[in-house]
Amino acid sequence: MSGYINLGYEPSRDDLVCEFYIEPNKKITFEKACEEIAAESSIGTWTDVATMDKRIAERLGPRIFQIDRKRGIAKIAYPGELFEPGNMAQIYSSVAGNIFGMKLVKNLRLLDIKFPEYLRDSFPGPKYGMHEIRKLMRVLNRPLLGTIIKPKVGLDSLMHAQVAYNAWVGGCDIVKDDENLTNQSFNSFEKRITETLKRRDQAERVTGEKKIYLANVTAETNEMIRRAKFVKKHGGEFVMVDVVTAGFSALQTLRNLDLGVAIHAHRAMHAAITRNPKHGITMLTLAKTYRLIGVDTLHIGTAVGKMEGSAEDVREIEEEIEEKKIKERKEVLSQEWGRIKPVLSVCSGGLYPNVIPSLIKNLGTDIIIQAGGGIHGHPEGTTAGATAMRQAIFAVQSGYPLEEYARNHKELAVALRTWKNVKM
Ligand code: CAP
Ligand code: MG
């Protein structure tokens, strides 16, 4: 298929634009690879077909309007009519579907999608978003502190609730279930929710602080809805969804039901798609997608913890989900977010007090900092671990070096000593 290269073309306001990194297979020119990718992701196939007519090609044909052979970058504008408003699965089946499996490409990575206004506004975006979450928490000028109950799975519902209480009274604002804790024989969903919410209320009374529980409702869609309603009915304000394994459509169903619960997006399995720098889909593209569908908080990485992702990449994602308008640069397309609310960034994965200064230096304070091992691994236990994290955050925001602040804050001193030689 050919005839899609149109280097003078200026994308219209209704075009959806994709930026790809393309590495053709042997004997395939870069232009040929671009043409075949443009065809297969829109109206074409491997050969011309007698059933195609000029009007379809004009109305729905893609336009490859930028090519940079040296960097392996191409930008393709797709007429908006190719896509169904409000249907994220269909958008990805088009521009992130068959093309990844085509023999003529050795590698292919979808770097960014620029959503046109009418498609953007066919999605609800976050119900609450960053600013309302902060108001709900009554915490406006410091990072929110969260923990993930550890061990990941294995505690029974009562023990889970107890550990949550210990974390809340130690200084955590937020406690979440781990991504693989749902409704197992050793920890039933209903019992865990009711017991943990009871301990949340107790922790609020004891500390005078607002406390949040992120209950993992990930399941088959109807069951996930039932669980989210259960959380709401028992006084929960937030649910957690493993958004990649649950899928775009299940997440859309949950969001569009508008149950009156905020949605925390865990991204387990994202790295199967996002990690390879030459093939797959960037986390930036996925993050934009989850902002559109409408999560309130989203894991974006830490740059300093145990998961891959450079400081620059993580900062780009943070900016993309928090700003109103994104300017085009390097491999990031411009994007107007209009009425779509900002999402609060979640930094998690191998965090502990010693790394808080570099985390905040890289990503600022408009984040949720989550630590599992970095709290429950404290030699003096969960409560001390949470206190040590709060002390580290306070020290950084007040401009004290951690070692100095630790002189008269023993929980922090013990944490710094315990993890001083950790390398990630
Ligand atoms: C962190 C965590 C989170 C990861 C997710 C875990 O625990 O609970 O799921 O952070 O990674 O299971 O590893 P630790 P990301 O604090 O003990 O590492 O946020 O990059 O998606
Ligand atoms: Mg986890």
Q: Characteristics of this structure?
A:
single chain; 15 strands; binds magnesium ion; 424 residues; eight-stranded parallel barrel; alpha/beta; binds 2-carboxyarabinitol-1,5-diphosphate
Task: Give an overview in words.
The chain is an alpha/beta fold. Helix content is 40%, strand content 17%. It contains 18 helices and 15 strands. It has helices at 30-40, 54-60, 88-95, 117-120, 129-137, 157-170, 189-207, 221-233, 243-246, 248-256, 271-274, 283-293, 311-322, 356-363, 373-376, 382-398, 402-406, 410-418, and strands spanning 16-24, 63-68, 73-78, 105-114, 144-148, 174-176, 212-216, 238-242, 262-266, 280-281, 297-299, 325-326, 335-336, 344-348, 367-371. It has an eight-stranded parallel barrel, surrounded by seven helices. The chain has a five-stranded mixed sheet with strand order 2-3-1-4-10. A two-stranded antiparallel ribbon has the order 12-13. Helix 7 (189-207) links the parallel strand 6 (174-176) and strand 7. Helix 6 packs parallel to helix 16 (382-398) and helix 16 (382-398) crosses helix 18 (410-418). The longest helix is centred in the middle third of the chain and has 19 residues, at 189-207. The protein is elongated, with a radius of gyration of 23 Å. 52% of the residues are buried. The mean pLDDT is 97. Bound molecules: 2-carboxyarabinitol-1,5-diphosphate (CAP) and magnesium ion.
